[in-house]
Design brief:
Elements (H helix, E strand, L loop, with lengths): L2 H12 L4 H9 L2 H19 L4 H26 L7 H9 L2 H17 L1 H14 L8 E5 L5 H9 L4 E6 L2 H14 L5 E5 L13 E7 L8 H11 E13 L13 H10 L2 E9 L13 E9 L6
Parallel strand pairs: 1-2, 1-4, 2-3, 4-5
Antiparallel strand pairs: 5-7, 6-7
Helix pairs in contact: 2-7, 3-4, 3-6, 3-9, 4-6, 6-7, 6-9
Length: 305
């Protein structure tokens, strides 16, 4: 039995009401889902062992998904996210190591077990990774669980990556996944606030990855400015963000895809491709459609328009 088959069997036995959601994710592209799930779960097995990853990772995914549903329901009722500052999120999530660890392993599984995140994962792989230059120097801002950057290194054996995250949990989990994937010699993770990266050498990265950080910030423009500062002219970036999609630690409420595009353009970045995706199912009578959006960026030459 493959790891992907093991996941499906575990969900059917322990979380039967979630089988439909997993099937929707697999239906996006069954062959690709099987391959991506097998790869990501192989890393999880490398961290937790052949009998430990199921309960640790799948159960964390179920808890995370349920928490997101509840947050979205509160957003539907109130019309705003429940927290509006880093201090509040730090109190409820980031400062609690056990909570943060569980959160990150849950998010790790969403990359292929939420249908709209599966779509975004393939967009990242096929439209971003496949088009990076040779031997790229990659910077990952807020790697979280580390899956995006590790996937980049696994797909691009000529690449090297520096990752920066404020969370000790993120550094520990990303490092463990990189080791399990056999790419730890090509990655360095440093505990550092992503908003302090303006002090790094300008134009030093061939590629920048920043997945689902921007909605966690009080000032998303500062993040985009840092991304632009790091990118060489002609470098490529991948930015993912959430729109009208509540979580306990989402702060900045993006309502329109054009807001993310305009923010990037305002800081000297050209948006070359986008993909905005939503879940197959939403809350009954929902007023807001939760979306996840991926943007592929280029550092615009200042002589160009």
């Amino acid at each position: 039995m493959t790891r992907a088959e093991t996941l499906l069997a575990y969900v059917a036995e322990h979380h039967p009401r979630s089988v439909r959601g997993i099937e929707e994710a697999r239906a996006v592209d069954p062959a690709a889902w099987d391959a991506v799930a097998e790869q990501f779960l192989g890393w999880a097995e490398g961290v937790w062992g052949p009998t430990g990853w199921q309960a640790r990772c799948i159960d964390a995914f179920m808890r995370f998904s349920n928490d997101v549903i509840m947050s979205q329901a509160r957003y539907e009722a109130d019309g705003h996210y429940e927290n509006s500052s880093f201090a509040e999120c730090n109190e409820h999530v980031y400062s609690q190591r056990d909570v943060m660890d569980d959160y990150l392993w849950g998010v790790f599984i969403t990359n292929f077990c939420w249908s709209h995140h599966m779509e975004l994962s393939l967009f990242f792989r096929d439209r971003f990774l496949a088009r990076l230059p040779g031997a790229p120097a990659i910077v990952e801002i807020a790697p979280g669980h580390g899956g995006w950057g590790v996937w980049a290194l696994s797909n691009r054996p000529d690449a090297r990556l520096q990752g920066f995250d404020i969370s000790p949990s993120s550094i520990a989990i990303a490092s463990s996944i990189a080791k399990a994937a056999g790419v730890s010699e090509r990655v360095t993770y440093t505990q550092r606030n992503a908003l302090d990266l303006a002090t790094m050498p300008a134009a030093s990265a061939d590629a920048v990855i920043c997945s689902f950080l921007i909605e966690h910030l009080e000032d998303p423009g500062l993040l985009v400015a840092n991304i632009a500062n790091l990118m060489k002219p002609g470098a490529r970036g991948y930015l993912a963000g959430a729109l009208t999609a509540a979580q306990v630690d989402h702060i900045y409420l993006f309502k329109r895809e054009s807001e993310l595009v305009a923010l990037c353009e305002a800081h000297g970045l050209r948006v070359t491709e986008t993909l905005s995706v939503s879940p197959k199912r939403t809350l009954p009578k929902a007023k807001y459609l939760p979306r996840s959006m991926g943007l592929i960026l280029e550092r615009r030459d200042l002589r160009q328009v």
